[in-house]
Amino acid sequence: MLGQLKLRLAPPLYRMLSGSVRLAGHGTARRPGGRPVIFACLHRDMIPAIFHVRGAHPTLLVSRSPDGDILIRTLERDGYGFVRGSTGKQGGRAFRDLLLALEGGASLGLAVDGPRGPFGVVRDGVLQLSRRTGTPIVPLAVRCGRHLSLRNWDRTVLPLPFTCLDVVERDPVVVPPDASDAEVADIARRLAATLLDAGAGS
User: Fold this and answer.
1) How far is 189 from 159, CA to CA, in rounded Å?
2) H helices within the chain, ranges in order?
3) What is the pLDDT of residues 138-166, one digit of tens each?
4) Predicted model pTM
5) Maximum CA pair distance of the chain?
């Protein structure tokens, strides 16, 4: 019952919020040279990041949970693509579908420590997508004005109406195709540090 209520309420609440929040700076995601990129954020910052990237119409990785159903219902009118599942295993269907989206010219939007954490630890999928395709990862460092922090594993940031969102695109990161496991692990740590730096949920 609660799930059905959330499914009904989320889209109109999103419309109300999207019409009132303000985006600082350039205010919309860029695609350098018109090429696909992988927009990367923390799961905590997913809602502010979605407002930032919507102009690029990326394909989003969405979990198969009821919350994933709510996210798709909420965003389906805004031109996003969706892939359901997790990139936890390279051979998984979600990973293959994300590769196909990149090869078809779509950008991606990934919460890189989701869907279940641990918080701030970059999972392997985003790194392997860049490694396989040469697509740059664009870290999104988020600062949110007035907001609520939900009481879940990542303290999800929920912007309040009429607040200002400052989403900064940090320097792109590309994982070389011949990178060693140690080099990939180092890139993951540096990416995590970049995403944690803005401290949107603090």
Assistant:
1) 27
2) 2-18, 46-53, 66-75, 93-103, 124-133, 181-197
3) 999 998 889 988 888 888 898 999 999 99
4) 0.89
5) 50
